[in-house]
Amino acid sequence: MQNLSQAEARRIALAAQGFSSTARIRQRRPFDPALERLHVLQIDSVNVFARSHYMPVFSRHGGYDQERLDRHLWSSGEFTEYWAHEAAFIRVEDRPLFAWRMHDYRQRYAERIDQLAPAMQRVREQLTEHGPQFVRDLETGPREKRGPWWDWSDTKRAVEMLFAVGEVVTAGRERFERRYAIAEQVLPEVALRTVDRETAQRALIEQAARSLGVGTLADLADYHRLKTGQAQIAVRALEDEGVLVPVRVSGWAGANGKPLQAWMHRDATLPSRLAPNALLTPFDPVVWFRPRAERMFDFHYRIEIYTPKEKRQYGYYCLPLMVGGKLAGRIDLKADRANRELLVQAAWQEPGAPSRTAEVAQTLLSSAASWQGLERVRVSGAGNLPLPASFGV
Q1: What residues does 259 pair with on adjacent strands?
Q2: Tell me: the pLDDT tens digits for 152-170?
Q3: What is the pLDDT of residue 143?
Q4: What was the pLDDT predicted at 33?
Q5: DSSP letter string over 172-186?
Q6: Where are the alpha helices (DSSP H) in the chain?
Q7: For residue 21, what pLDDT is reported?
Q8: 374, exposed or middle or buried, with CB in 10 Å at 0-12, 13-18, 19+?
Q9: CA dihedral 100, 106, 107, 110 (to 10 degrees)
């Protein structure tokens, strides 16, 4: 069995995630390298600085035109949304790999589906007759009675259930609100196929291994939110085929102190050097599975959006800061678009952070502000990362 040091595992993982020394974005099909590496692009509604699905491309390639990415995701016909990790963009040809999940939703929520049957049928009929619509267009009245499920109306509950079981899909967004459509009316035939559970889960675990480079069973399972038992069956089959190679990573141990079994994809590469700098969204695959971030980078991260202000340790929406391939800090950002400023509400560096962490942070913040069309960076001074009070882009 091959043994890897923690530094080697980090380089393998970052290379698999699309970080490299040649980070410049391509002109022709510029988003393919990042999207192919990631496989899923998580969507989140928080827009304090930039919506989460815009960030991974910026983290890997620097500034770009967000509208161009929107057109690529929504107008090319190549992508759709589903619960592939959390809500995420996936390629349309990969949608059949989640047919088993759609089936499981239907089984799990059978009682709720029965309760929503009239509303679901009405939504089906309206979308079939009138084409893609927002929930507000589907509502039966301006103040439709709200239900107990997240204070959603029956119409909202019905359309979200239809989305979960695969009958409807998202056909674009406006101000981040989904426009819904009947799947058969907007998706190509390749997206409507059915792939059996075992084949699909094996494909998802292989793709997770490609995207992670190296990982434990928990890492591989989390990437597409498979249950551990499901992932284990797929891992065994892929190991037997030689697709996954068993490895041990120095320092990777379970709660009992025993070494953790890990696997590396057979096509993973170990760069001799790889030391990228980047600001990451909290929903970047590098950090989204918190146990992996702690094991891989010795970086304890928890998002504090839902923590009362007086109990927050670092800030409302901290972006992890990567310096030289290490997670070296976290920066709480907010875009003040009215004053064209990027506000650094707090900036922190980790114990043992590289000596150039502040310098790298300033460069990345200038780049981030420029990308968002802002003119200056203003720093509150909160935190232990020394930055100038303000600087241009």
Answers
A1: 253
A2: 789 999 999 999 999 999 9
A3: 53
A4: 86
A5: EEETTEEEEEEHHHH
A6: 6-16, 32-38, 55-61, 66-74, 99-108, 110-130, 135-138, 154-164, 183-186, 197-212, 217-223, 228-240, 290-297, 357-371
A7: 58
A8: buried
A9: 180
For residue 113, report the phi and psi dihedrals to the nearest 5 degrees. -60, -40
Task: Compute CA 141 distance to the chain's CA centroid, rounded to the nearest angstrom.
Answer: 35
Q: Print burial letters for 82-95: b (CB count within 10 Å at least 16), e (below 16).
A: bbbbebbbbbbebb
* Predicted local confidence at residue 112, as pLDDT: 95
Q: Token pair of 239, please?
A: 């190991």
Residues ≥6 apart with Cβ < 8 Å to 385:
329, 331, 347, 348, 349, 357, 358, 361
Q: How many CA atoms lie within 13 A of 245 on its CB side?
A: 15
Residue type, 325: G
pLDDT in tens, 132-145: 999 999 987 655 55
Helices (H) and strands (E) in the chain, counts: 14, 16
Rounded to 5 degrees, φ, ψ at 297 are -120, 0
pTM of the predicted model over 0.85: yes
All residue ranges of the chain with pLDDT < 70 are 21-28, 141-151
Nearest to 41 by CA among 93, 87, 110: 87
The pLDDT value given to residue 150 = 55
Number of C-beta neighbours around residue 233 at 10 A: 16
Query: What's residue 248's pLDDT?
Result: 97
